[in-house]
Amino acid sequence: MNYERFISGRANWIKGSALAEVMKRASQLQRQGIKLISLAAGDPGPNLIPRKVLAELAKEILENNPKSVMYTPTNGIPELREELAKFLEKYEKIKVSSDNIVVTVGGSEALDLLGRVLIEPGDVVISENPAYVNTLLAFEQLGASVEGVLVDEDGMRTDLLEEKIKELKAKKKKIKFIYTIPTGQNPMGVTMSEERRKELLEIASKYDLLIIEDTAYNFMKYEEKGIPSLKSLDREGRVLVAGTLSKVLGTGFRIGWIIAEGEILDKVLMEKQPIDFCAPTISQFIALEYLRRGYFEEYHSKALQGYKEKRDVMIEALEESLPNAKFTRPIAGMFVMLFLPEGADGMSFASELMEKYHVVVVPGKPFYTDESGKNAIRLNFSRPSKEEIAEGIKRLAELYKDKF
Ligand SMILES: Cc1ncc(COP(=O)(O)O)c(C=O)c1O
């Protein structure tokens, strides 16, 4: 049967994710018995997560706490929200009441819910260019058109941001908010300087815009430069936070949060209830005990050391094998963006690398809001082992030298 006539107009705005396509092809090859090295996914390292501690917590909670298999309040278990408030104050210098925290199904749901509450079809969302493709898709699915502002080594170019706002205002466009991933940006791996953070807040205030701060990589900082989160600098309530424990506990737990207030908070909860009622209860209890019992303090700095070493292996391998290539040098997050020579096609390079060299990377193009970025390739260093990183970059360099 052809179902086209049943599909809603809104569903027709949905574009498939290029990330999903890459993963689909990779799993086809794996099913054929081909061993792949993946420098693709945005997962933390499975061996840098204290899985044994988490397993013990899961067992204890499931055995002893009957609430762990029930619904929780839509905004999350009160004790977890209290614990998150303390955690955010300690690590992010954010003073937030637990009443202003909503526990979500990862940062993904946090971003989607904020989009649902704020976006009307036809609205403009300003985003970093490039930015995390799934958020761009989520906003576009809600009818937003995304306008990008270029990112360099210091994060979003705030000088270009103001120009962009003026240009859009002149065209009578309705801009609702600015979306940014200031720390360990996905896909670029760059971190916004403190000066730019302050400028961004000033611009948002001047033009009466909200900011959505995606803090997915705020707990993956490798050089402590003490750059404050946007929310901790926000004096006007303009910054809405979409946070997550995915990169700390593992992406499978699906625990994230929103920090919001007033009508936005009320509407977020109304939106969330019919969608999924609450974030997964067992994950909420595990996150609660993980934070409450001090496991974050105990294990996280060791994990960061491990990520830092992996990053260094990747950077050194790139410097050695491709001394003339351009790539970013992250001080936070999980990604390095590699630029092939101008005019090269990253999509076909990534495809050839997977098919012939059995190394999976993500083409950068889908992360861009315009026609640029065709030559970009996103490389992940958090999930593969150091040996896989070295071997993966070696094979990538072979193809690179062969082609350029
Ligand atoms: C920038 C950014 N935001 C949000 C997310 C969503 O993460 P999750 O839904 O697992 O919390 C990701 C995942 O990779 C990300 O890179």
Overview of this structure, please?
By secondary structure, the protein is of the alpha/beta class. It folds into two domains: 4-49 and 297-403, Aspartate Aminotransferase, domain 1; 70-293, Aspartate Aminotransferase, domain 2. The protein has helices at residues 18-31, 51-64, 78-92, 106-118, 133-141, 158-170, 194-206, 230-233, 246-249, 262-276, 281-292, 295-321, 346-357, 386-403, and strands at 37-38, 101-105, 124-129, 145-152, 155-156, 175-180, 210-214, 239-244, 255-259, 326-327, 335-339, 359-360, 362-363, 376-380. The strands form three sheets. It has an eight-stranded mixed sheet, with helices on both faces. A four-stranded antiparallel sheet has the order 10-11-14-13. It has a two-stranded parallel ribbon with strand order 1-12. 46% of the residues are buried. The protein has 14 helices and 14 strands. The structure holds pyridoxal-5'-phosphate (PLP). Pyridoxal-5'-phosphate (PLP) is lined by residues 42, 106-108, 132, 181, 186, 214, 216, 244, 246, 251, 256.
